[in-house]
Specification:
The chain is an alpha+beta fold and about 325 residues long. The protein contains nine helices and 16 strands. It has a six-stranded mixed beta sheet with strand order 8-7-9-6-1-16, covered by helices on one side. Helix 1 packs parallel to helix 2 and helix 2 packs across helix 3. It is globular, with a radius of gyration of 20 Å. Bound molecules: ligand DP6. The site of ligand DP6 has 16 residues, from helix 4.
Length: about 325
C-alpha cells in the first residue's frame, strides 16, 4: 500500500476560564467547563505519514526524533486513531511550532489538535469538528479547544461523547489581544498532567468547581456583549482560584515568581487608575497572559516591556480552527 499522508495546522489557545482537574484521567473528562480563544499568530504544523514499510512509529518534534515521555504520549494517541480507522500500520510524525517552548504557551494543545486532524485525514477519515475535538481531548485536554476557531467553550460532559469544544463567537467578534509576558524560559517542574491529578488534594478545589458553571456563564456573557469590565472580573477571579488550588494541593504547586506578582499588580493598577482595558490570566507557569482590547494593546505592551524582570512580550489575536494544509503542486 502506498504512503498515506496529511499535514495539519493548529494554534494553541489561552483559557479565560480554566481547566484544572479531571473526573476521569484516562479520558481527560474535566471536572468543569472552560472557555478559551485560539492564538492566531502561533501554530504547530504536523505531518503524519502512515508508512507500511515502518514496523514502529517515529516521532520528530522541531527536527529532533523524540523518545521516552513525548514519544509514548504521541504513540498512545496514534493508538486511538488506529482503533478508530481499524488500521494497523505505523506512522512517521513530524511536528514543528513557530513559538518557543517554555514561554507559557501550552504546545500540547496545538500539537494534539494538529496530530488528530493530520493522522485521521491521512487515513481517509473525515471526522466532524466535534468528533475531532473529542479525539484531541484524549491527547491533551486543552487540545479539544484548539480544534474549533474563535471563542470556544469546552463542555465538561459526563461521558466521553459529551465532552467536546465548540465555537460560540467567531475570531473577529472581538479583537482582543493576548500579550504573553515572558519572565522565565525555564521548563516547569510539574506539568499540567500531574497537576490535574493533584487538584483533588486541595481543600479549595470543591469550592472552585462549585462556582465554575457560574463563572463560565459570566465569561460567555461578557464575551458575547464585549463587556471588558465583566470579562476582567471573571477572568482574574478564575485564574486566582486555580492558582489557589495549585498552592494548596498536596504537595503544593507554586508557579509564580516575584516578577509574576509585579505584573499582576501593574495590570490591576493600569486598569483602575488609567482606565486601560487589560486583565491577567496565568497558566501552569510564571509567565502572565495579559488580555487587552485592541485599543489598549500598544500602550499596555510598552508599559509591560518596561517592567523589571520582563524578558519578552509576544502578541497574539483570536484565531481560526485547526485545518488541513492542501498539498501545493509546485513544491512536489
Ligand atoms: C493551566 O490541557 O495542558 O493551561 O490534559 O494533561 O495535557 P493535559 O493538560 P493541559 O492543561 C491545561 C491547564 C491550564 C489551564 C487551561 O488551559 O485551561
Amino acid at each position: 500500500m502506498p504512503e498515506r499522508s496529511a499535514t495539519a495546522l493548529a494554534s494553541p489557545n489561552i483559557a479565560l476560564i480554566k481547566y484544572w482537574g479531571n473526573r476521569d484521567h484516562a479520558l481527560r473528562l474535566p471536572v468543569s467547563p472552560s472557555i478559551s480563544f485560539n492564538l492566531a499568530e502561533l501554530s504547530t504544523q504536523t505531518t503524519v505519514v502512515w508508512d507500511s514499510s515502518l514496523d514502529t512509529d517515529h516521532v520528530f518534534i522541531d527536527g529532533q526524533e523524540v523518545t521516552e515521555d513525548s514519544y509514548r504520549r504521541v504513540v498512545r494517541h496514534l493508538e486511538h486513531v488506529r482503533e478508530l480507522a481499524r488500521h494497523r500500520g505505523s506512522a512517521r510524525v513530524e511536528s514543528s511550532s513557530n513559538f518557543p517552548a517554555g514561554v507559557g504557551i501550552a504546545s500540547s494543545a496545538s500539537a494534539f489538535a494538529a496530530l488528530s486532524l493530520a493522522a485521521t485525514a491521512a487515513l481517509g477519515l473525515s471526522l466532524s469538528e466535534r468528533e475531532l475535538s473529542i479525539l484531541a481531548r484524549l491527547g491533551s485536554g486543552s487540545a479539544s479547544r484548539s480544534v474549533p476557531g474563535g471563542f470556544v467553550a469546552w463542555y465538561a460532559g459526563d461521558r466521553h461523547e459529551e465532552s467536546y469544544a465548540e465555537t460560540f463567537a467567531p475570531p473577529d467578534h472581538w479583537l482582543l489581544v493576548d500579550l504573553v509576558v515572558v519572565v522565565s524560559r525555564a521548563h516547569k517542574k510539574t506539568g499540567s498532567t500531574s497537576g490535574h491529578a493533584l487538584a483533588v488534594t486541595s481543600p479549595l478545589q470543591a469550592a472552585r468547581v462549585a462556582g465554575a458553571q457560574e463563572r463560565f456563564d459570566a465569561c460567555q456573557r461578557a464575551v458575547l456583549t464585549r463587556d471588558f469590565a465583566g470579562l476582567a472580573r471573571v477572568v482574574e477571579l478564575d485564574s486566582n482560584l486555580m492558582h489557589s488550588v495549585m498552592m494548596t494541593s498536596d504537595p503544593p504547586l507554586f508557579y509564580w515568581q516575584p516578577a509574576t506578582l509585579t505584573i499582576i499588580e501593574a495590570i490591576r493598577r493600569w486598569r483602575e487608575e488609567d482606565a486601560l482595558e487589560a486583565c491577567y490570566t496565568i497558566d501552569a507557569g510564571p509567565n502572565v497572559h495579559c488580555i487587552c482590547t485592541a485599543e489598549s494593546a500598544d500602550t499596555v505592551e510598552g508599559r509591560l516591556r518596561a517592567l523589571p524582570g520582563v524578558l519578552d512580550v509576544l502578541r497574539a489575536t483570536p484565531g481560526g480552527p485547526a485545518r488541513l494544509m492542501t498539498p501545493c503542486p509546485q513544491t512536489r
